[in-house]
Design goal:
alpha/beta, Chitobiase, domain 2, TIM Barrel, 2 domains, eight-stranded mixed beta sheet, eight-stranded parallel beta sheet, 17 helices, 20 strands, about 35% helix, elongated, disordered N terminus, glycosidase, Beta_hexosaminidase_sua/sub, beta-N-acetylhexosaminidase activity
Length: about 550
């Protein structure tokens, strides 16, 4: 009995020691399982990176990392029978999508995954181990890592960051920077808000005026009062992406295992398009691209076949560019008074037995969903696409609908009671949760501090467990109305993006805000080196 007790007590102490040690390994997002050992491995100029047909690009990327970060000149090889001092990649089809296993032993490092994406995520973890959790001897030219085994997989399959460039055009350099940081944090969806009332930012060859006119506004609302501000910049703002530039950015994202989901707003937030082609609007009047923020002066006349043909033409060019299965069509904040005051629209509604404006919106949205499906795509939209009443300015009677939204739709939940999410989930819809009070990056830190961003749970507390699998992930949104400069965008995004990355990846039981904040110090070093102007620690919590 005494021997059994000693063995048990020894094992207990060993596990306890390993647990404490694993807490000292700082990786963001936090892996699901970390098992540490006492021995170590040295990476030096003799270490080789072994690749095969699936991992040549990954090996080259890792080789470049060691050269740039530590000035270590590691060689790559396709020789598969090395015995010691190497890094290799293995494919195991039994692994789940995006999952990986990272093993650092005394004589080698091995990354195992189902596919290249899992291997890529394993490399991001290895980079964080090397940069922030290892001993580097600058003069003896070696990197010493503790023996460790990491078993890891994401909690959610949809881990999104959204950039709104309709309000302020940022350009390719900033987008690539964001993609780099997303990849490092294992985020996999870049939601690109390219059109809105205040600007159209994507070239559509069939309709050149969308960028010739719609990408330009003569001034911009500014000032500390924000939405109520009477101050104008008195300076023009313009910018858009050519289709060739879009292709370059898509390729850049693909290399980082990020899917770009474009958002083409319809039927609301369409003033910039209507300014380019007035016949698109319900009123038929000529208007300018707005110089104030907020909901625009007109919406698409969806009762007009010419307008719906226009939208399908635009979607055709968008689908030809973006390989994403999902196309986001917005659908939020449609002011129904435009349709209510149009005899043309009212006649169309009567002919199609549509009793309310919400009926018309769902009817139109379903026609777009059907068109996307015919092209092998899937529609996503903000939760107004279900006909829900989310806004004070809408008459409740206008938001009653008997129309059923296309079943394949993905609901992007941003506003409303959890009962609306329950309704969507219970009716079989997949949901991306982006509840604005927790995920809108344009909010000040006093309203959305880092701790609140980190505490967000995409699965609502009151949602019945049987619907939990309908929550496929989360998005965090950088709305652009009040971020005229790159630095202001950096300040809003960083460090909160790291919190959302961990929300999307790490299981609730593995999350720990104190540990996260310690890991954040490493990311701050990275951001400083990359000239990313993140918010300092004393600003990210309530004061």
């Amino acid at each position: 009995m005494k021997i059994k007790f000693i063995i048990f007590f020894s094992l207990f102490l060993l596990l306890k020691t390993q647990n404490i040690t694993s807490q000292e390994i700082h990786i963001t997002p936090r892996p699901q399982k970390i098992i540490t050992g006492n021995k170590s491995l040295k990476i030096n100029s003799e270490t080789q990176i072994v690749f095969n047909d699936n991992s040549k690009i990954l090996a080259d990327n890792l080789q470049q990392y060691f050269k740039e970060e530590f000035n270590l000149q590691l060689k790559t090889t396709d020789f598969q029978n090395l015995k010691i001092n190497f890094i290799d990649f293995k494919i195991d089809k039994s692994f789940a999508d995006e999952s990986y296993e990272l093993n650092v032993s005394v004589d080698k490092i091995s990354i195992i995954a189902k596919n290249e994406t899992g291997l890529f995520y394993g490399i991001q973890t290895l980079k964080q181990l090397c940069s922030y959790n290892a001993k580097f001897s600058k003069y003896e030219k070696y990197l010493e890592l503790k023996v460790v085994k990491i078993e890891d997989c994401p909690r959610f399959k949809w881990r999104s960051f959204m950039l709104d460039e309709a309000r302020y055009f940022k350009g390719m350099k900033q987008v690539k920077m964001l993609l780099d940081e997303m990849a490092f944090l294992k985020m996999n969806v870049f939601h690109w808000h390219l059109v809105d009332d205040q600007g159209w930012r994507i070239e559509i060859k069939k309709y050149p005026k969308l960028t010739e006119i719609g990408s330009k506004r003569k001034s911009t609302q500014i000032g500390p009062l924000q939405w109520e501000s009477p101050i104008q910049s008195a300076e023009p703002h313009t910018g858009f992406y050519t289709q060739e530039q879009i292709k370059e950015i898509i390729a850049y994202a693909k290399e980082r295992h990020i899917t770009i989901v474009p958002e083409i707003e319809m039927p609301g937030h369409s003033t910039a398009a209507i300014a380019a082609y007035p016949w698109l609007g319900t009123s038929g009047k000529e208007i300018e691209v707005p110089i104030k923020f907020g909901v625009g002066k007109d919406v698409y006349n969806v009762a007009n076949q010419r307008v719906t043909d226009f939208l399908k033409d635009v979607l055709d060019e968008v689908m030809a560019l973006f390989p994403s299965e999902v196309i986001h069509i917005g659908g939020d904040e449609v002011k129904y008074n435009h349709w209510k005051s149009s005899a043309y629209v009212q006649k169309y509604m009567k002919e199609n037995k549509l009793a309310t404006p919400a009926d018309l919106q769902v009817y139109f949205t379903n026609s777009i969903s059907k068109y996307l499906q015919s092209k092998g795509k899937r529609m996503m939209g903000w939760n107004e696409i279900m006909g829900h009443n989310l806004h004070y300015y809408q008459d409740k009677n206008d938001t009653k609908t008997t129309q059923k939204l296309a079943q394949e739709s993905i609901i992007h939940f941003w506003k409303g009671d959890v009962e609306l999410a329950t309704t969507a989930a219970s009716n079989g819809y997949e949901i991306v949760n982006s509840l604005h009070t927790f995920t809108y990056l344009d909010y000040r830190y006093k309203n959305l501090p880092l701790s609140k961003a980190y505490a967000f749970n995409p699965v609502p507390d009151k949602l019945d467990a049987k619907y939990h699998d309908k929550i496929i992930g989360l998005g965090c949104q950088m709305w652009g109305e009040w971020i005229p400069t790159d630095g202001e965008m950096h300040y809003k995004v960083f460090p909160r993006i790291a919190a959302y990355a961990e929300v999307g990846w790490t299981e609730e039981k593995q999350k720990n805000f104190s540990v996260f904040k310690k890991s954040l110090k490493n990311l701050q070093k990275r951001w400083t080196a990359k000239e990313i102007y993140f918010a300092p620690d004393n600003f990210v919590e309530k004061k």
